[in-house]
Amino acid sequence: MLSIFLNGRLVQVPDGISVAAALLGAGVTAFRHSISGEPRAALCGMGICFECRVTIDGRAQQKSCQVTCCEGMKVDTA
Amino acid sequence: MTRVVVVGAGPAGMAAACRASENGAQVTVLDDNPAVGGQIWRGGSSAIWFQRLRKSGAEFLGGSQVVMADARAKTLLVERAEGFRSLPWDKLIVATGSRELFLPFPGWTLPGVMGAGGMQALVKSGLVVKRKTVVVAGSGPLLLAVASYLKSRGARVAAIVEQAPLKRLVGFGTRLLASPGKLVQAAQLQLSLAGVPYRTDCWVEAAEGEGQVRRVLVHGAKPIDCDYLAVGYGLTPNTELASVLGCEVSCDGVRVDRRQQTSVADVYCAGESTGIGGVDLSLVEGEIAGLAAAGRPTEGLTAKRRAARLFAQALADAFALRPELRKLCRPETLVCRCEDVPYQKLAAHSGWREAKLLTRCGMGPCQGRVCGAAAEFLFGWGHTGVRPPVLPARVGSLVVEEETQS
Amino acid sequence: MTVDVVIAGAGIVGAACALELAEAGLKVMVVEWKIPGGGATAAGMGHIVAMDDSEAQFRLTRYSQTLWNELAPRLPEDAEHLPCGSLWVAADEEEMVECRRKLSYYNERGVTAQMLDERQLADAEPRLRRGLAGGLVTPEDSVVYPPCVTRYLLDRAKGLRALLITGKKVIAVRDGLVRLNDGSEISAGAVVNATGAVAPELTPGIDIQPRKGHLVITDRYPGFVRHQLIELGYIRSAHAVGTDSVAFNVQPRSTGQLLIGSSRQLGTFDPATEMPMLSTMLRRAMEYLPELAGVSAIRTWTGFRPATSDSLPLIGPCPGVDRVWLATGHEGLGITTSLATAKVLAAQILQRECAIPVEPYLPGRPC
After folding, report:
1. Which residues on B lie below 8 Å from C275 (Cβ)?
2. Which of A22, B155, C27, C364 has its CA 20 to 30 A from that of C257?
3. Would you place residue B35 in the very low, low, confident or very high pLDDT band (cuts 50, 70, 90)?
4. Dist. CA C253–CA B263, nearest whole Å
5. Which residues of A touch C (CB under 8 A)?
């Protein structure tokens, strides 16, 4: 298990989990909002739809389905 | 020594890398995922091919995304976590696979609505679905594989909703008698899915819920409450890299000759990106491309490829998408999710290029990967050219240092 | 069929001319080979800027800017008109001198402009690198999304009985008889060549050459920059005939996406994105906005500006060809000057007054 920060909240997640799966597991339904304000979350799971983007360790627009969680990672949804 | 670069480490890429390396080429295989296997073998590739790849001596570069490709200079610009790399090649094998075809319907943008393969990928990457209710919908044998996998992970699969008519599926089923291997696979699937309702001639008409999907409306049946909707209408080839290289591309995939060569010298293509055809076809195409790139004869595999293609064609016929799926959208249903362009705005235009310019559909980060194939199905619009970068890249990566003449 | 005017080319210039002439009561036909607003119109940044490059340039851009500001309230939402202003960035003291010259030039002519010192520049645009000397803000500048504006102008023209033919090309004009590529012929009192960089195909020998430009659009980063940012070296780049050049130019869209430019290459029609040119352009941009390095670029493309030898457009009668007019050669200012171009052209065709002198833009002028 490792610890990450989801929107400032400390959460325990299993080793090797993707950020997207960790978000969903933590009950986050909206990863971001679309141009017209709709809540959005992962769709394709393979990095081509760009719906799962979040800010990771201060870097915006990261595809959470293609990033593996690591200790102390800071994930922020928009 | 011939330098062969293979883009994509799914079945086709792995097979190509093995054959090329075994026949004397210096091979590098790239994939944007951390491990080999592509989508279909994600989280555990075929043991035989994995071992063969390891023994072959080919170098694997994971976490590597091709950003730009120059067919004249014969180099790729590859972005990795630690920076970018310029990768030269003598022969290039494009094995970029396929992605799911998404068709818009009311509520499809709700969180909790994912692709069928998409949901499988997320579960493989750690999404917990124990005791969650999932509806698996869309079209294709992938639905069965996904449903079986989800069930094995503790999900309650409320239904499999397949748009293909029963009689076509039965026809396809009898074809399986000709392929014992596939028959066994089918039987195994059937066992694992005992008790899961499999509705044919059926499709999701809408997903409903506040902020996330809670229920789906199904054609000709009662609404189904669920936690997730895994919906995909088959696969469509990833042809963007080939396009950027200048290869001829049709709506079915990258055009190749009998040695898997594209219209651009020294560029080959194998697997789903030449046309959707399943694992067996991908493997044999990969082998042919690998042999061809290493300058070896490929005739020995032609018959195998022909047989695999026949099966692929039967698959395509059985699961062809029905016209009712074009009528699912309401005027306000979004087609382009990146730019939030609704159906009625798109329907006002006469072609993809014009629609893109005036509505900005397809101009967002996905560059039409989600909405383009949908628009093609909905309106019959053809593709247009692809511009680099192949996938979004950091501005810093697009700056190459001046190279001295090599 | 007989019309008063055939306009070849439905880019923003052709569209503006169509509306102006239709409003004057002429029967107008616009012939577009591909997609209206789909050529250089779609490829550019869509900025509207008063340029002090020369007196004639200033008059045309300033007049046009005024027309844009009048039009802005009527523009549809998809035209994405954003009154973000421009910020000319001075890298060193030499460029600050140039800024002060600009400031007095603008002040004398009633253009709102404000000098910024190093600290004020940093406050106005925090992401610009430290160590820049200052800048000049011109708040009356704005940006639009040109393809949608072009459609709007054409729709208004069509509302005044103008005809829009797409998928056809004007291939020849003789004595008021216009021949299209499908063999059909139209009798016209006047023909306007507004076909941009390929204008010499219809009226050979005119002083127009393609000036290729690269652009990059990024993912959404709202608030990354607040103004259209331009380096003072931009003018030098625009004048650098015969050499490839780049100049820093970044524009925010209302979605928060950034448009990054600019580059110039003369004499090529190759639409491919060229890595070396792109690299040079982006390196220049990162010199001013270092954080661009980490920004996600989602697409690159190219376009061809129609360039003349003296950086002023050709608006007026085509030398040596009866009843044919030119409305092209706008280089990087086509969007800005489209509306004023229509006025300058219409004044000549209709033989009426024009708010600015037309002489500097006449084709066939010595250069």
Report:
1. 68, 70, 77, 398, 400
2. A22
3. confident
4. 38
5. 35, 59-61
For residue C38, the chain B residues in CB contact (below 8 A) are: 353-354, 357
Nearest to C275 among B68, B365, B392 (CB): B68
CA–CA separation, C269 vs C208, rounded Å? 13
Confidence of residue B406 (pLDDT cuts 50, 70, 90): very low
Tokens of B340: 């939030």
Measured in angstroms, the CA of C360 and the nearest CA of chain B are apart by 34
* Strand-strand pairing, B113-114 and B249-250: unpaired
pLDDT of residue B404: 36
* Closest-CA distance of chain C to residue A64, Å: 15
| pLDDT, position B45 | 67
Q: Among candidates C243, C278, C235, which has minimal Cα distance to C101?
A: C235
Size of interface A-B (CB pairs under 8 A): 111
Distance CA C327, CA C27 (A): 18
CA angle B231, B235, B240 (to 5 degrees): 125
Q: Which residues contact C302 (CB under 8 A, 6 or more apart)?
A: C43, C212, C213, C214, C215, C271, C272, C273
Mean pLDDT of chain B: 92
ipTM greater than 0.95, yes or no? yes
Q: The pTM is what? A: 0.90
pLDDT at B34: 84
Whether the pLDDT of residue B152 is over 80: the answer is yes
Looking at every residue in chain C, the average pLDDT score rounds to: 95
Encode A2-71 in three state secondary structure. EEEEECCEEEEECCCCEHHHHHHHCCCCCCEECCCCCEECCCCCCCCCCCCEEEECCEEEEEHHHCECCC
- Select the residue of B351, B396, B398 nearest C278 (Cβ to Cβ): B398
- pLDDT, tens only, B198-216: 999 999 999 999 999 999 9
Cβ neighbour number for residue C70 with a 10 Å cutoff: 10
- At residue B405, does pLDDT exceed 60? no
| Residue A18: closest C-alpha in chain B | B125
Cβ-contact B17, B53 below 8 angstroms: yes
User: Would you put residue B330 in left (φ > 0), alpha (ψ -120 to 50) or beta?
Assistant: beta
Query: Closest to A59 (Cβ–Cβ): which among C220, C255, C294?
Result: C294
Q: How far is CA C237 from the centre of its chain?
A: 16
Shortest distance between the Cα of C362 and any Cα of chain B, in A, equals 32
Question: Which pLDDT belongs to residue B403?
Answer: 46
Cis peptide before B11 (omega within 30 of 0): no
Question: Which member of B363, B388, B395 has the closest CB to residue C282?
Answer: B395
CB contact under 8 A, C301 and B398: no
Q: What angle do CA C2, C8, C10 make, to 5 degrees?
A: 115
- Whether the pLDDT of residue B178 is over 70: the answer is no
d(CA A77, CA A61): 10
Q: What residues contact C135, with CB distance under 8 A and at least 6 apart?
A: C87, C88, C89, C90, C99, C115, C116, C121, C124
Question: Distance from C214 to chain B by nearest Cα, in Å?
Answer: 12
Strand ordering across the sheet containing C228-231: B393-394, C296-307, C209-220, C257-266, C245-252, C228-231, C86-90, C134-138, C114-116
